[in-house]
Amino acid sequence: MRKSALITGITGQDGSYLSELLLSKGYTVHGIVRRSSSFNTARINHIYEDPHEAGRRLVLHYADLSDSTGLRRVVEAAQPDEIFNLGAQSHVKVSFENPEYTADADAMGTLRLLDCVRDHCQHTKREVRFYQAGSSEMFGAANPPQSESTAFYPRSPYAVSKVAAHWYGINYREAYGLFITNRILFNHESPRRGETFVTRKITRAVGRIKEGLQDKLYLGNLDARRDWGFAGDYVEAMWKMLQHSEPGDFVVATGEAYSVREFLEEAFSHAGLNWERHVEIDPSYFRPTEVDYLLGDSSKARKALDWEPRTSFKTLVRMMVDNDLRLASDERLVHDKKYVTSDPRR
Ligand code: NAP
Ligand code: GDD
């Protein structure tokens, strides 16, 4: 029997890499897509399958983590063996602007989905394995290195919501015997990273500065240190967690941390640029409460899951810069009107 997986947040960075991985392993993948006035499926267009095709293995459903009836309908339709709850308002700074929405999507959304799963398992007597996307932000102000035994000290509405979701997961595991695995992933990036996260904001700017499309890059705190890995490596750990014999809580990290300044240095110098000529500090990007230093100790996951990251910091930065140099060069062609476009207004 083909396995069925349901992914919330399939249109996000991790959802797209995870879908590719699960399809390559023979799964049928169901994904939740939010209604939007413009297309929000750019990261999964390359694996999209027409609904009119027989036997397709990628099935998209309109739903939202704020709508439990819709979630129930999707769980019934997908009959999943595994659920990956990746959907979230995932931007830390935005969570200070929209705290209530962040709590609704990230904390309450997880509770809604867990409750669907609880009923589904009770009625159907099926086992559904549930993966909750926790975050190193939950450690917040705790001293590095952080591991499964480090006490949480969340520093933003986003992090508080993720801590709540984490504990909902543990409570449903203990109360109803459900297979719920909490992962605590440290930052992971890729060429598909959202453009307002600092790494991608930097690499997009490198490409555009190189092509003469912009000159300045405005950033906030350059001293923050993060443990940055590659999203492609991390989705393998996600999948492995649900294949493990026991549910549990796992930290996934590279074990190396770099500052935003070091990321800048690496990214700009790879393109032959000097970051100090282009970067200016804009205090509006400072956070009311900052997380200064995240550095993960993932020994438990490495041992139990036989997993380790394959992509170094340098390789990751270069992969992102090279991608964004290509994008900027395309943008330059459009800018110079060298592209023949089918848009009749041009
Ligand atoms: P992302 O690129 O921001 O993707 C988030 C996904 O959630 C998108 O598909 C988004 O849909 C969807 N979403 C947002 N609000 C929703 C709602 N109310 N209902 C249904 N779907 C909703 O995030 P990511 O980097 O892939 O991260 C995946 C998960 O891991 C998130 O939960 C994030 O908090 C967590 N996490 C990420 C990292 C990291 O470094 N990347 C580290 C630790 C934990 P749209 O495309 O329509 O916006
Ligand atoms: N976004 C952003 N924009 N961050 C900036 C900027 C800027 O202009 N300038 C400096 N920073 C600093 C932030 O203050 C923070 O300390 C660091 O860069 C990283 O910021 P983000 O890239 O926005 O990521 P994050 O660490 O806050 O959150 C990401 O990682 C978490 C895991 O630790 C997100 O993916 C979260 O969803 C995830 O849980």
The residue ranges in which pLDDT falls below 50 over 5 or more consecutive positions are none
The H-level CATH homologous superfamily of the domain at 4-193 and 228-255 and 295-310, spelled out, is NAD(P)-binding Rossmann-like Domain
Side by side, the strands of the main sheet go: 3-2-1-4-5-6-11
Our Rg estimate from Cα atoms comes to: 21 Å
Query: What's the total number of strands?
Result: 13
Distance between the termini: 52 Å
> Structural class, judged by helices and strands?
alpha/beta
Run of helices and strands: EHEEHEHHEHEEHEEEHEEHEHH
- Average pLDDT level: 96
**How many H/I helical runs?**
10
Largest sheet: 7 strands, parallel
The CATH class of the domain at 4-193 and 228-255 and 295-310 is identified as Alpha Beta
Strand content: 15-25%
Remind me, CATH topology of the domain at 4-193 and 228-255 and 295-310? Rossmann fold
Tell me the CATH architecture of the domain at 4-193 and 228-255 and 295-310: 3-Layer(aba) Sandwich
What kind of oligomer do you see?
A: single chain
Fraction of residues in H or I helices: 40-55%
Shape: globular
Bound molecules: NADP nicotinamide-adenine-dinucleotide phosphate, guanosine-5'-diphosphate-alpha-D-mannose
Describe the structure.
The protein has 346 residues and is of the alpha/beta class. The chain has a domain of 234 residues: Rossmann fold, CATH 3.40.50.720. Strand 1, helix 1 and strand 2 form a beta-alpha-beta unit. The termini are far apart. The chain binds NADP nicotinamide-adenine-dinucleotide phosphate and guanosine-5'-diphosphate-alpha-D-mannose. Guanosine-5'-diphosphate-alpha-D-mannose binds next to helix 3 and helix 6. The site of NADP nicotinamide-adenine-dinucleotide phosphate has 27 residues, from helix 1, helix 4 and strand 5.
